[in-house]
Specification:
The chain is α/β, with parallel strands linked by helices and 337 residues long. It folds into 2 domains: 2-144 and 287-336, Quinone Oxidoreductase, Chain A, domain 1 (Alpha-Beta Complex), CATH 3.90.180; 156-283, NAD(P)-binding Rossmann-like Domain (Rossmann fold), CATH 3.40.50. It is built from 10 helices and 15 strands. It has helices at 41-47, 135-138, 141-154, 171-182, 194-201, 217-224, 242-248, 271-276, 289-302, 317-326; strands at 2-6, 15-19, 29-39, 64-72, 84-87, 118-122, 126-128, 163-167, 186-191, 207-210, 230-235, 249-257, 280-283, 308-313, 332-336. Strands 3, 4, 5, 6, 7, 14 and 15 form a 7-stranded mixed β-sheet that branches. Strands 10-9-8-11-12-13 form a 6-stranded parallel β-sheet, with helices on both faces. A two-stranded antiparallel sheet has the order 1-2. Strand 8, helix 4 and strand 9 (186-191) form a beta-alpha-beta unit. Helix 3 (141-154) crosses helix 4 and helix 6 (217-224) runs parallel beside helix 7. The protein binds NADP nicotinamide-adenine-dinucleotide phosphate. NADP nicotinamide-adenine-dinucleotide phosphate binds at residues 40-42, 143-144, 147, 167-173, 190-193, 196, 211, 236-237, 240-241, 258-262, 284-286, 327.
């Protein structure tokens, strides 16, 4: 089978197409013929050496993918041949609170990921995907979808009448917009692009704020909420925006700490307004299988569709990563096999 693997070093230049034998599923394992993957900013971080500087090569990158069950090992009870399935982002977090093992079970680093014609996973690390989705759409769910689900629904408990601030128009952001609207919230979307703001308004965003034209967007959030502040801010940018997110929040509001697009260490974080306002900072680590399954039920029932910006072929995988790196995408970038 053909795979893309990182060979002997980091960087997209070291990501090459290679041949490996088709893996054979052992007891309770499932062989999946891959149909589509979606790319996440984390995949670029793994390829660039940010997440696992001591990684052993070769590694097949990419955490998120969907495929069809092509063979099952002995004692497999949860799936049958032909089922359309997706791997869970962590193969070792089914439900409840995470333990430190969840980190050892991440697809696309440290475990081999989905950018291969076939993959073998334990049946416990798989879920069925909603039938109405295309393969590319279904491939968007494991990381970006579940992250937004944990932030908005499972931990965020966003409810009708709440105001939610979403930063940007990338993969996590657009899922968060969809889930917040589903729960009856008012959503303020920040973007650096007028064109993307126009597109996001068609997805149901209630207020659009350009963080370029309005760098003091926290003040704009306060104005839009008549001085009350947002109930919930999804912090996707990280270092550069955390103080503004605190300023944009209402007293007793919540910030979901998700992204690090502007860096992973925060200097000059203002503690005083955070505790004076009794802001709840909630770390988000994608999510577990139980959240993935709950999200799929909601997506299937409401016939939601992830926003796919562009698809590439398997052979064009490097081009797909370079496109993601440029940051001009709206929603998800996918590779269809
Ligand atoms: N903790 C977790 O569980 C978890 C899970 C998934 C992702 N993440 C992290 O979350 C972040 C977003 O991931 P993603 O996959 O959604 O990324 P993505 O698809 O690449 O989206 C990035 C978008 O962020 C927006 N952006 C950039 N700088 C901004 C700023 N200063 N203010 C507001 N928006 C800004 C841009 O939108 P515009 O072009 O519209 O401005 C850009 O398109 C990444 O750091 C990723 O590593 C964390």
């Amino acid at each position: 089978m053909k795979v893309f693997e990182l060979q002997n070093g980091f960087g997209l230049d070291r990501l090459v197409m290679a041949e490996r034998p088709i893996p054979v599923p052992g007891p309770r394992e499932v062989l999946i013929k891959m149909r589509a993957v979606s790319l996440n900013s984390r995949d670029l971080g793994v390829i660039g050496g940010f997440y696992y500087p001591d990684m052993k090569f070769p590694l097949i990158p990419v955490s998120d993918g969907v495929g069809e069950v092509a063979a099952v090992g002995e004692q497999v009870a949860r799936f049958r041949m032909g089922d359309r399935v997706s791997g869970t982002f962590s193969q070792r977090w089914i439900s409840g609170e995470p333990t430190k093992e969840w980190l050892d079970g991440l697809l696309g680093g440290p475990l081999d990921g989905m950018l291969a014609e076939y993959a073998v996973l334990h049946e416990d690390g798989l879920v069925r995907v909603p039938e109405h989705l295309t393969d590319a759409e279904a491939a968007c769910l494991p990381c970006a979808g579940v992250t937004a689900w944990q932030a908005v629904v499972a931990e965020g408990r966003v409810k009708a009448g709440d105001t939610v601030v979403v930063q940007g128009t990338g993969g996590v952001a657009l899922f968060a917009l969809q889930f917040a609207k589903l729960n009856g919230a008012r959503v303020i979307v920040l973007s650096g692009s007028e064109d993307k703001l126009e597109r996001v308004s068609r997805l149901g965003a209630d207020h659009l704020v350009s963080y370029r034209a309005t760098p003091d967007w926290d003040e704009e959030v306060q104005r839009l909420t008549n001085g009350r502040g947002a109930d919930h801010v999804l912090e996707l940018v990280g270092a550069a925006t955390l103080n503004r997110s605190v300023a944009a929040c209402r007293f007793g509001g919540q910030i979901s700490l998700i992204g690090l697009l502007s860096g992973h260490e925060v200097e000059n974080f203002r503690l005083v307004p955070t505790f004076q306002k009794r802001i709840r900072l909630q770390g988000i680590n994608v999510g577990n299988r139980e959240m993935f399954e709950a999200m799929n039920r909601a997506i299937a029932f409401h016939r939601l569709r992830p926003v796919v910006d562009r698809t590439f072929s398997f052979e064009q995988s490097l081009e797909a990563f370079r496109y993601l790196e440029k940051g001009t995408h709206f929603g998800k970038v996918c590779i269809v096999f």
